[in-house]
Write a structure and sequence with these properties.
Layout: H1 2-47, H2 49-81, H3 86-96, H4 98-101, H5 103-112, H6 121-140, H7 146-177, H8 182-219, H9 221-233, H10 247-262, H11 265-279, H12 285-294, H13 303-328, H14 333-347, H15 349-355, H16 358-361, H17 366-394, H18 401-429, H19 440-452, E1 478-480, E2 483-485
Antiparallel strand pairs: 1-2
Transmembrane segments: 47-69, 123-140, 146-167, 188-210, 216-234, 272-293, 305-324, 336-358, 404-427, 439-461
Family: Belongs to the major facilitator superfamily. Folate-biopterin transporter (TC 2.A.71) family.
Keywords: Membrane, Transmembrane, Transmembrane helix, Transport
């Protein structure tokens, strides 16, 4: 009887064990699926849902989706409508991003000049309205001169930049109050931007083919309209009885505080590294774009194919955010930047394989090789960019967080403008035109080598734990008149006191 009992009990034991294993597997997969939702819920509870929604709209829809649509449409607009050369297009697209260089001005305004008692909400509304008007003007005007087209594109870029400054100020303020969530907030920004870019790039080629570049500009008025909605919905504590007569004084105080912070050794050194890292990575995107679409011995990609290539790049960017969030966010800045800078330089050589047509000799089709190239390059670029963002938020003192973060970002954009104009100059020197691409491979080699140079400058980056504050305690608070603004007592209104 004992033997029979053992034989009968054994299957029941196995069934129970298998059931436990199945339940644990089901629980694991369910937890994996629900993990992003729990993460969003945590951020919404800690930081308020309107802030999370603002990040999704500004980064995901206005910048991600909007820039995804506008990049392809602007490239085709410059090439087919305005008939400009690759080097000229490289310079003009750099000019379009000049509003991002003057971000400290927008930051000073949002930090020191409330409108109707609010410091962030009115600027979201103004930014959205400015972008809507500029995109509609581009879409509706026929045979627009290059100067006016450039002016409208700059105005649209300014609208996106102003909204970016306003949401960056909110992110930086929350970083000061919740330093342990700094990486999570930047991951939220990066995820929103990457997902939006994926959708935008996926649709861009189809829309350019269907309605043309000017038609896409008209569609871009809708993301800008959502920024206006965010300006109406964002929770913000109003500044009561604000003394507008003291605006000049507040401008001076904020400027002095920003300059004093920038002179701090722990601040200017990483800022210098970020500038040099971006400036030395020469941009030759327009040369590659013209080669993709116009070179007789090139792939001759269609508009839909170009959009799909960029959409795969957005997936690579998204993977970079996920990789940073789950594996790298707690690693020291220097360690991450060393490997990403090295891989950034090596990944640039993939373009060399393509332009020299080595991929065809190896039996790899152009499209397959290009999408792999784009995905890998964007993933490495995103992993490289994420520590910059986290580091930048930790360099901002309370009270002028919008101004100072905008200042750091403007330094970064000066670096990108430098790389864009230097890349355009390089294409011009090498005589890369709409029909001549013989020397494009030389530009690729020079660009790839320069990308590795910043490794020798990593001593400028602090060794500190990315989860800890970097600035000295006396710099983390900003003095204003006879009052000191404490981060703990501030809710999106740190520099403006009730007077």
């Amino acid at each position: 009887m004992e033997e029979v009992g053992e034989n009968e009990a054994t299957p029941l034991h196995f069934n129970a064990e298998n059931q436990v294993r199945r339940n644990s597997k089901d629980g694991f997969f369910l937890g994996l699926i629900l993990r992003p939702f729990h993460w969003f819920k945590l951020l919404a509870e800690q930081l308020h849902w309107s802030f999370v929604l603002g990040v999704v709209v500004v980064y995901g829809i206005s910048q991600g989706l909007g820039v995804g649509l506008s990049r392809v449409s602007t490239q085709y607009y410059m090439k087919d409508e305005q008939k400009v050369q690759p080097s000229q297009a490289q310079v003009l697209i750099g000019i379009i991003h000049i509003p991002w260089i003057v971000k400290p001005l927008w930051g000073l305004l949002t930090d020191t000049v409330p409108v109707l008692g609010y410091r962030r909400r009115p600027y979201f509304i103004f930014a959205g309205v400015l972008s809507v008007i500029s995109m509609l003007m581009l879409s509706l005007h026929r045979n627009l001169r290059l100067a006016f087209a450039l002016l409208y594109l700059i105005a649209g870029s300014a609208g996106i930049a102003i909204a970016d400054v306003a949401i960056d100020a909110c992110v930086t303020q929350h970083t000061i109050n919740h330093p342990s969530l700094a990486g999570d907030m930047q991951s939220l920004c990066g995820l929103s931007s990457s997902i939006g870019a994926f959708v935008g790039f996926s649709l861009s080629g189809f829309f350019v083919h269907l309605v043309g570049p000017k038609g896409v500009f008209g569609l871009l008025s809708f993301p800008a309209g959502l920024v206006v909605v965010i300006g109406m919905m964002l929770r913000e504590s109003p500044a009561r009885n604000f003394a507008y007569r003291k605006v000049k004084e507040k401008f001076v105080d904020a400027s002095k505080a920003a300059w004093a912070t920038l002179k701090c050794r722990d601040v200017w050194r990483p800022c210098l590294y970020m500038y040099l890292s971006l400036a030395l990575g020469l941009h030759i995107h327009e040369g590659m774009f013209y080669w993709y679409t116009d070179a007789k011995n090139g792939p001759l990609f269609s508009q839909e194919v170009v959009g799909s290539i960029f959409s795969i790049g957005a997936i690579g960017s998204l993977l970079g955010v996920v990789l940073y969030q789950n594996l790298l966010k707690n690693h020291p800045f220097r360690e991450i930047l060393f490997w990403t800078q090295l891989l950034h330089g090596l990944s640039g050589l993939l373009d060399l394989i393509l332009v020299l047509r080595i991929n065809l000799k190896l039996g790899v089709p152009d499209y397959f090789f290009v999408v792999i190239d784009e995905a890998v390059s964007r993933m490495i670029g995103r992993v490289k960019w994420m520590p910059f963002l986290v580091l930048s938020t930790k360099l901002c003192p309370a009270g002028i967080e919008g101004t100072f973060f905008a200042l750091i970002m403007s330094i970064d954009h000066v670096g990108m403008l430098t790389s864009s104009w230097a890349g355009g100059l390089l294409l011009h020197i090498l005589k890369v035109t709409r029909t001549q691409f013989d020397n494009l491979w030389i530009a690729i080699v020079i660009r790839s080598l320069l990308r590795i140079v910043p490794i020798g400058l990593l001593f400028l980056i602090p060794r500190s734990d990315p989860n800890l504050s970097i600035l000295p305690s006396e710099v983390l608070r900003t003095k204003k008149g006879d009052n000191i603004v404490e981060p703990e007592n501030v809710e999106m209104a740190s520099l403006v006191n009730s007077i």
